[in-house]
């Protein structure tokens, strides 16, 4: 019989939960301090990996590299470096990949990237650059035996002609060597679960890890969603209505909304999550606690409390 203190993250699942955290490279000393305090707070949860984004148009090449290199040097976390095909020749991209290998990085999140003129404009591959993400994935795998994650879009990438065409593109990325897909964020779990069914029916068998964006700031999340093609349900807008200046209540609602989303996914069989942290730890830490993860002071991997 289980102890009365036994904790179950889900009404139906006792499977261990795996998490990963996404950060962006800091632009200033102040942002750097806030990034590192978030990494320090979340690291004892022993994430599967932590990823660092690559700025639009390749704008953060150095900062992404420096942040990833510091994660290797100063922590026991496994970093994943985001990398895009934008604004660089194949040779230049391969050079970046080699420098990651030399720095001890073994995981890259491979992306095509947005058009240089911004989302919504026409994408043109750089002359001499990798044309599509599948080419980049193959290029990375030629440089070293990297783990390669790629993106997936439960509500379709805005440029894709159809969801099926997008799933074909995902299949091409996996056929070129991608080992995991991380989804764009979504707020309606049915979108994700239906997408996974279609992906499996297409013969894609890599993990499709749901990307979770805890809504710290509804206005900002809605604006990201508009750019990425993610839909914002009316019920979500209603939950944050009237709280624009009430930060404390907004935080409580944000925690409740995120908890509802991830616990519903756990109940529906999901046990791996990728959190878009926005370089802030508190909300993500609380959700991970709800998922049963506990800070581990030792080098042991984090376990779900039994
Ligand atoms: P892809 O999956 O490569 O697809 C882009 C479009 O091309 C789709 O319409 C697809 O259907 C089509 N397509 C793909 N392959 C083919 C093919 N072989 N033939 C024909 N059509 C094809 N952006 C950044 O700038 N930096 C980041 O760090 C970053 N991190 C991200 C992390 C995640 C988890 C996600 C979901 C997105 C991220 N993005 C990032 C955003 C991403 O760069 C943009 O969404 C971009 O517009 C597309 O890049 P992709 O690799 O996601 O697209």
Which structural traits does this protein have?
single chain, 306 residues, TIM Barrel, nine-stranded parallel beta sheet, globular, disordered N terminus, disordered C terminus, binds flavin-adenine dinucleotide
Structure, described:
This protein has 306 residues and is α/β, with parallel strands linked by helices. It has a single domain, classed as TIM Barrel. Helix content is 41%, strand content 13%. It is built from 10 helices and 9 strands. Helix 3 (90-102) packs across helix 4. Residues 1-7 and 300-306 have low confidence and may be disordered.
Short description:
The protein is of the alpha/beta class.
Class of secondary structure makeup: alpha/beta
CATH class: Alpha Beta
Ligand list: flavin-adenine dinucleotide
Question: How far is the N terminus from the C terminus?
Answer: 12 Å
**Which fold name is given in CATH as the topology?**
TIM Barrel
Number of continuous helical runs:
10
Task: Profile the largest sheet.
Answer: 9 strands, parallel
- Which band does the percent of strand residues land in? 5-15%
SSE series: EHEHEHEHEHEHEEHHHEH
Helical fraction equals: 40-55%
Number of domains: 1
Q: Tell me the radius of gyration.
A: 19 Å
Unreliable stretches:
1-7, 300-306
**Could you give the order of strands across the largest sheet?**
7-6-5-4-3-2-1-9-8
The averaged pLDDT comes out at: 92
């Amino acid at each position: 019989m289980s102890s009365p203190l036994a904790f179950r993250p889900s009404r139906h699942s006792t499977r261990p939960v795996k998490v990963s955290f996404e950060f962006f490279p800091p632009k200033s000393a102040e942002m750097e301090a806030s990034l590192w305090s978030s990494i320090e707070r979340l690291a004892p949860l022993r994430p599967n990996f932590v990823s660092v984004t690559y700025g639009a148009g390749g704008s953060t090449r150095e900062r992404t590299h420096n942040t990833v290199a510091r994660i290797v040097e100063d922590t026991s976390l496994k970093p994943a470096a985001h990398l895009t095909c934008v604004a660089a020749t194949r040779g230049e991209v391969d050079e970046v990949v080699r420098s990651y290998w030399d720095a001890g990085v073994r995981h890259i999140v491979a992306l095509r990237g947005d058009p240089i003129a911004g989302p919504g404009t026409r994408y043109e591959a750089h002359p001499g650059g990798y044309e599509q993400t599948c080419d980049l994935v193959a290029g990375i795998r030629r440089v070293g035996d990297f783990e390669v994650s790629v993106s997936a879009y439960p509500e379709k990438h805005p440029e894709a002609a159809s969801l099926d065409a997008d799933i074909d593109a995902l299949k091409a990325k996996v056929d070129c060597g991608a080992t995991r897909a991380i989804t764009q964020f979504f707020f309606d779990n049915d979108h994700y679960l239906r997408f996974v069914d279609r992906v499996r029916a297409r013969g894609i068998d890599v993990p499709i890890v749901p990307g979770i964006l805890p809504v710290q700031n509804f206005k900002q999340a809605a604006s990201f969603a508009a750019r990425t093609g993610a839909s914002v349900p009316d019920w979500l807008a209603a939950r944050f209505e009237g709280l624009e200046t009430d930060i404390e209540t907004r935080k409580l609602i944000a925690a409740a909304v995120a908890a509802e989303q991830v616990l519903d996914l756990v109940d529906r069989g999901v046990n791996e999550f990728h959190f878009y942290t926005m370089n802030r730890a508190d909300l993500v830490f609380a959700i991970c606690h709800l998922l049963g993860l506990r800070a581990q002071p030792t080098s042991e991997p984090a376990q779900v409390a039994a």
